Amino acid sequence: MPGAVVCFASARRRSPHRASVCIARPPLLLPSMEGSEELESSLLTQPWASVRFGESTFLAKVCFRDSGYILLISDLSSVWYESADAEAVGQRSKELNKRLTVHVSSFLNHLCNLMCPLLAGQPGATTAFSCHRSPSGLRLHVKSELSGLPFYWDFHCCPAPLEMVFRHLVRPLIQMSLALQCQVQELISLLLQKDAEIEDYRENGATLSRDRLRTEPFQEETFQQNFMAETLPRICSAGEGQAFASALQQLYTAVTQQEVKQARKPHCSEDDVDTAPTAETTKHPPSPATSQEDETTSSSERTSVVPGASPVPSIWTPSLVQELLCCKPRPSAPCWLWGLCCSPMPASMFRRSAYHPCEGIWLVYPFWV
């Protein structure tokens, strides 16, 4: 179609990550796990945190374990990551800290303790962070002390692959938007029911004891117009570093926990997928909440409690998020299109379109064929 741009993101065809990253809730020292896929699944449930280096604001999340670490950081224009095992950490520590002869696990534990307050918005007084961007990546320099001696560390981050960006940022944001929209619709329904209840009381002679408590009947259209005209501009004018306030961090965790849970369920065989009726597929697009992830399957569900992690409040429990994400699309929602040959979207276009306030969650949830 002349003048039209169609953007799709892959939700079906995926390859496993060889390295993964993420900087969120205070970094955690986790027990050793086999396979980068299981490590990334634990990273996925860590919420993003806002960090500031000089005049630049970033979103980041990190996860440490006794065999290495993985880091993901973004300025919302680019996304970078680094994954380092114990051998790489030991080699780099020898190059940067020649006077220190501690075990690799001590380096990892110290790095974890340095990143914790940074992600909590309270970097240590004796710790300095600096960030240097280049065409090939991003370097995060850390200067501190260990055992009374100077301690230096450099995170060497390279551009993150698109599939990692979609998994850790785009898909959770889309699902969070859908969950919040469903919540808003339920609240509107409750308001209308309350108005009907109040009107019934009035018709039966009930009166208010305090006139200041009187309210006008809720008008959804007026509310939406006022929100778009007044509240939305104020939200959009806030700094990008405010993208993940504490309440949204909790929702992010609940949404990603649900994705990990869904990914660990037994998958249908390829034959089952290939033999599914074409007409049925065209009419009913797969729900983002229930789509299976080829790259995140694992043999057993990890149930250990991560030390230091704050519990998710009851308002955003995984069961509630699952219920919200299973909401059926309205008939007016954009239809699901199959068979379009789409090339990968450049990062600059991706940044603009990812935050488009349309309701067409299916259109935003695309694929390449």
From TrEMBL:
Sequence ranges assigned to domain XLF-like N-terminal in this UniProt record: 47-158
Annotated Gene Ontology cellular component terms: DNA ligase IV complex
Top-level division of the source organism's lineage: Eukaryota
Location(s), subcellular: Nucleus
Pfam families, per the entry: XLF, XLF_CC
Gene3D superfamilies for the chain: DNA double-strand break repair and VJ recombination XRCC4, N-terminal, Helix hairpin bin
Family annotation (CDD domains): HD_XLF_N
Presence of the UniProt keyword Nucleus in the record: yes
Protein name: Non-homologous end-joining factor 1
Species whose genome carries this gene: Taeniopygia guttata
